[in-house]
Amino acid sequence: MNLIKIIETRDGSHSLLNEALNETYHSTHGAIQESLHIFIKNGLAFFVNKNNCEGITIFEVGFGTGLNALLALKFATENKIKINYHSIETFPIDAEVICQLNYADLISFPDSKNLFQKIHSCAWGESTAINEFFTLKKQNQSIHEIKLPVETFEIIFFDAFAPAKQPDMWVFPVLEKVTQALKPSGVWVTYCAKGQLKRDLKSLGLRVETLSGPPGKREMVRALKHSQ
Ligand SMILES: C[S@@+](CC[C@H](N)C(=O)[O-])C[C@H]1O[C@@H](n2cnc3c(N)ncnc32)[C@H](O)[C@@H]1O
After folding, report:
1. pTM for this one?
2. Which of 54, 109, 115, 214 has the fewest beta carbons closer than 10 A?
3. Which residues line ligand 1 (CB under 6 A)?
4. Is 226 left (phi over 0), alpha (psi -120 to 50) or beta?
């Protein structure tokens, strides 16, 4: 039984519905709009403006459709910043579904269609140069099992299914593991703005900011590590 269905969100971009969980991979108000607002504008662009850096490592929880990866690749290419993008996923999406997604039509930059394909066709478990600015390592592994290196990533894209649908992704030991992998100057972003998440991140020593969310969502969370 196929439990994954393509849906169209309000900005015209696709998302997926996981019918077993009755949960979408992105906001139904607009998948691209949401990813741009939370992960690119308030995560990646925020970090780059603040740190004026040339190379960045990003860790993503939940590779899903590869939308965040494609938007980060576009950002890296347009801003000529080298990004190492490491993403984990327990349930890789079938190629027949991926090839129907309209992201590379809507997010246009030179060679975007080929690059989106490359993001998906590259081998799991290996680092692959998608272009001269973007290296991707996808890992078919759960956040519960993976061992993460300490203080390695500049940015965490925490893009798990919602706490109401997958509470095990938001428990303290997971947040602690991910936070330990963040560099001292690092930035942690997510679409979730639950009080318990904010309290847990604060108790892990992060400075938690509640920002306006994308259309259709009141708030989101950005958390900064150490003295920023
Ligand atoms: C909200 S979706 C991610 C959307 C994705 N970032 C994108 O751009 O399309 C959540 C993802 O987390 C994955 N996931 C579920 N359990 C996981 C686990 N234990 N470890 C890592 N990823 C998991 C799901 O399969 C799903 O692809």
Report:
1. 0.97
2. 54
3. 25, 61-62, 64-65, 67-68, 88-91, 142-144, 159-161
4. left
> Which pair of structure tokens corresponds to residue 170?
């938001």
Which residue's alpha carbon is at the smallest distance from atom 2 of ligand 1?
25
**Which ligand 1 atom is nearest residue 160's CA?**
10
Q: Cα–chain-centroid distance for residue 100?
A: 20
Instruction: State in Å: Cα 63 to ligand 1 middle.
Output: 6
**Nearest-CA neighbor of 76 among 44, 107, 104, 52?**
44
Residue type, 46: F
Q: What is the CATH number of domain 34-225?
A: 3.40.50.150
> What is the token pair recorded at 182?
């963040």
Answer for the pair 40, 75: CB distance below 8 angstroms, yes or no.
yes
Report the candidate in 166, 168, 177, 221 with the shortest Cα–Cα distance to residue 199: 221
Amino acid at site 58: I
The residue type found at 111 is D
Q: Residue with the nearest Cα to atom 27 of ligand 1?
A: 64
Q: Relative to the CA of 169, which ligand 1 atom is closest?
A: 19
**Model pLDDT for residues 86-133, shown as the tens digit of each residue:** 999 999 999 999 999 999 999 989 999 999 999 999 999 999 999 999
